[in-house]
Amino acid sequence: MAESIEKSSIILICFSAKYRNSYACRLEAEYAKKRDRPIIPVKIDHQYDLTGWLEEITKDENCIDFTKYEFNTVYGQLIDEINTINERINKK
After folding, report:
1. Diameter of the chain by CA atoms?
2. Is the pTM of this model over 0.85?
3. How buried is 30 (Cβ within 10 angstroms: 0-12 exposed, 13-18 middle, 19+ buried)?
4. Residue 62 CB: number of other CB atoms within 10 A?
5. Going from the N-terminus, what domains does the chain have, and what CATH number goes with each?
6. What is the CB neighbour count within 10 angstroms for residue 5?
């Protein structure tokens, strides 16, 4: 897990109630935040909203919601967000 995060420039968290309740997922998300990796929260469960530790980790991030709109529309938003973050990373 740690090695994958170290090799990643952006972390996508596809969140759901199962993700939030997973101790392993929590450790991974907290490690990504601690390592200052940009995180993109992606909502994939229409019955779950960010709460608790997951909300705290992602509160400053732009959430991409695949439950509200057509796939192609939201997919475009996700690509735009990835490109924006990559531009910011490349300026460092």
Report:
1. 38
2. yes
3. middle
4. 14
5. 2-82 (3.40.50.10140)
6. 16
Contact 74, 42 (CB under 8 A): no
Contact between 39 and 29 (Cβ < 8 Å): yes
Question: What pLDDT score does 49 carry?
Answer: 86
DSSP 19-86: HHH-HHHHHHHHHHHHTT--EEEEE--TT----HHHHHHHTTS--EETTTS-HHHHHHHHHHHHHHHH
Q: Compute the distance between CA of residue 75 and CA of residue 30 in angstroms, rounded to an integer.
A: 25
Type of residue found at 56: E
Tens digit of pLDDT at every position of the chain (92 positions): 789 999 999 999 999 989 999 999 999 999 999 999 999 999 999 888 888 999 999 999 999 999 999 999 999 999 999 999 999 999 97
